[in-house]
């Protein structure tokens, strides 16, 4: 059974005897649908709409009928994310109105709200600690602690040069993954063992969706380039170094172009400053002419390294820690079914694809 939200309709796709999926339900909505959350245990479907409303339905056991339960007037404009939390009977949501809100799914009452710094497009919740993670278009991630009727700002942080497009929380390792329009994924060690932030570079376009396979510790990231990247998160990765500043190349001592005094003294034309991605040293182009992938630092693609680092990196260290797959559509939404190992991707081409990931996610 699959649920698709297309424009103003909600369709429930059931696999027929022929092996093909056909919609069992075709439900018209008053406003275009923008997001949804489905809870399989209760068969509760929460759908966010363009007009700011969240509509809740219960699906029948045979998935042939959906019964409206209630509507929440949650936002002033488009609902961007919705998340139903069964354990607390809460409906969490974010909107185009830059509000985060939570409602009681029993009473339908609004419990509280928080103004985000920009429109949010990532929303995750940790039931145990009641921490909510909100990623927004400004690139900020905000962590709030929710009580029954109020919330406290715990922290906010930034690591991306573009907006946050997706968030994914691993409650076991207590790690948060953020995907961004800057093409990267950052793994934040929220559990605080070391407070590290590790960058994963494996996309040539915006990262649009993330999913985590807890049992195998693999992260699945999908991008606007159609790429599905499966990251092995069992390997110990290192943080990228801080970029060092220097007036001259830290290898050959040639002055960079802004070091006028040294340029004058040595009568040499200044060079452009580059940085080795492995050691962080400020080097000139001539001393960093080679490229290498550094998978253990999250660079699955080749990046600039200085000549000495290039020599030092072994073939073993160059072994990829991710696998790359082409979905052949611009992915906007994913859902991973861990029990079957199936990945569903929905694209801007209005096509829904179902992938058997068992050969790679195992
Ligand atoms: Zn140099
Ligand atoms: Zn180096």
TrEMBL record:
Gene3D superfamilies registered for this protein in UniProt: YVTN repeat-like/Quinoprotein amine dehydrogenase, Zinc/RING finger domain, C3HC4 (zinc finger)
Extent of the signal sequence: none
Zinc found in the keyword field: yes
Entry keyword annotation includes Zinc-finger: yes
An example Gene Ontology molecular-function term: zinc ion binding
Residue ranges of domain FYVE-type in the record: 243-314
Listed PROSITE patterns: WD_REPEATS_1, WD_REPEATS_2, WD_REPEATS_REGION, ZF_FYVE
Extent of the WD repeats: 157-190, 200-241, 324-357
Cellular localization per UniProt: Early endosome
GO biological process entries: positive regulation of fat cell differentiation
Keywords: Endosome, Metal-binding, Repeat, WD repeat, Zinc, Zinc-finger
SMART domains: FYVE (SM00064), WD40 (SM00320)
A GO CC term attached to the entry: early endosome
Domain of life: Eukaryota
Short name of one Pfam family: FYVE
PANTHER family assigned: LD41958P, WD REPEAT AND FYVE DOMAIN-CONTAINING PROTEIN 2
Name of the protein described by the UniProt record: WD repeat and FYVE domain containing 2
Gene source species: Rattus norvegicus
The encoding gene: Wdfy2
């Amino acid at each position: 059974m699959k649920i698709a939200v297309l424009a103003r309709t909600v369709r429930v796709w059931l696999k027929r005897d022929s092996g093909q999926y056909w919609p069992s339900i075709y439900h018209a909505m008053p406003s275009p649908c923008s997001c949804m959350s489905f809870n399989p245990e209760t068969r509760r479907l929460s759908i966010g709409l363009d007009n700011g409303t969240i509509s809740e339905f219960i699906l029948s056991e045979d998935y042939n009928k959906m019964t409206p339960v209630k509507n929440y007037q949650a936002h002033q404009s488009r609902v961007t994310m919705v998340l139903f939390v069964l354990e607390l009977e809460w409906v969490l949501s974010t909107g185009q109105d830059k509000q985060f809100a939570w409602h009681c799914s029993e009473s339908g009452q609004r419990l509280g709200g928080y103004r985000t710094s920009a429109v949010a497009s990532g929303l995750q919740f940790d039931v145990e600690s009641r921490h909510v993670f909100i990623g927004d278009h400004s690139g900020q991630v905000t962590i709030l602690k929710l009580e029954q009727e109020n919330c406290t700002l715990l922290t906010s942080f930034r690591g991306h040069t573009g907006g946050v497009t997706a968030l994914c929380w691993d409650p076991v390792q207590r790690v948060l993954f953020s995907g961004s329009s800057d093409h990267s994924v950052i793994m934040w060690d929220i559990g605080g063992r070391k407070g590290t932030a590790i960058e994963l570079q494996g996309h040539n376009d915006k990262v649009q969706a993330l999913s985590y396979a807890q049992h195998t510790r693999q992260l699945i990231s999908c991008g606007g380039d159609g790429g599905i990247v499966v990251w092995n998160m069992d390997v110990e990765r290192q943080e990228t170094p801080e970029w060092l500043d220097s007036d001259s190349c830290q290898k050959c001592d040639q002055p960079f172009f802004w070091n006028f005094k040294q340029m004058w003294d040595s009568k040499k034309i200044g060079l452009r400053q580059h940085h080795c991605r492995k050691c962080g040293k400020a080097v000139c182009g001539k001393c960093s002419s080679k490229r290498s992938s550094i998978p253990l630092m999250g660079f699955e693609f080749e990046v600039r390294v200085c000549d000495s680092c290039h020599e030092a990196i072994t073939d073993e260290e160059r072994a990829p820690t991710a696998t790359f797959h082409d979905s052949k559509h611009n992915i906007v939404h994913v859902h991973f079914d861990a029990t079957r190992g199936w990945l569903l991707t929905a694209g801007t081409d209005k096509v829904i694809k179902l992938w058997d990931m068992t050969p790679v996610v195992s």
